[in-house]
Amino acid sequence: MVEKNFALERLVFISDAVVAVSIALLALGIGIKSISSEYWQFSDIGNLFKLLAAFTLSFFNIANFWRTHHACFTHINRVDERLLWYNMLWLFFIVLIPFSTSLLSTFWGETIAATVYSMNTLLIALSQNLIWDYASDNKYTKEVISTKIDDSIRIFSNLDMINGALALTFSFFHPFAAFVLLFIKLPMIVISRMYFREGRSSRG
């Protein structure tokens, strides 16, 4: 078994760093290179809207996944080799988000772009579930962890997974509907987090 104070802290540090780099790469993807001439046209504004819509979705998508990841590792107190690799898998799919975002904004409304992005989102959610399921099943969490906390992490992880699976399904025959589904998840997550926060406060 790897020591907590060394391996766990390094794992959390590199995870936060990779998430920050992924968001930075998203921001670097915003530009006006799609403008066709020195004068702005309505089509140029439309291209910028697609770019900003894809960026907004991905920014809050990454932020949401990071928030759940942070919640997981707040309650995990040790790691082993398998958990490290599950986390590396999660980071790999996080790093792919800037690429799938670029694809989504460039080929707006195309099946392949919506499919790749939805698949990317689903794979992040699946790897996130792997992390928490493995840690909790093998007692790698802190001794005292309430059912409420465990349920909240599982609910958020499952919401991400179900949303990604639905978006992937819709992407094959209605790409824009897949995009809308991915966007709808964001307010749902916010409302769910507020509910669990209020629940903990009332119990406290």
Automatic annotation (TrEMBL):
It catalyses: K(+)(in) = K(+)(out). InterPro entries: TMEM175-like. One of its GO terms (cellular component) is membrane. The keyword Transport applies. It is a multi-pass membrane protein. Its main location: membrane. It holds the Pfam family TMEM175. Keywords: Ion channel, Ion transport, Membrane, Potassium, Potassium channel, Potassium transport, Transmembrane, Transmembrane helix, Transport. GO terms for molecular function: potassium channel activity; proton channel activity. It comes from the Bacteria. It is found in: Membrane. Belongs to the TMEM175 family. This is DUF1211 domain-containing protein. It comes from Persicitalea jodogahamensis.
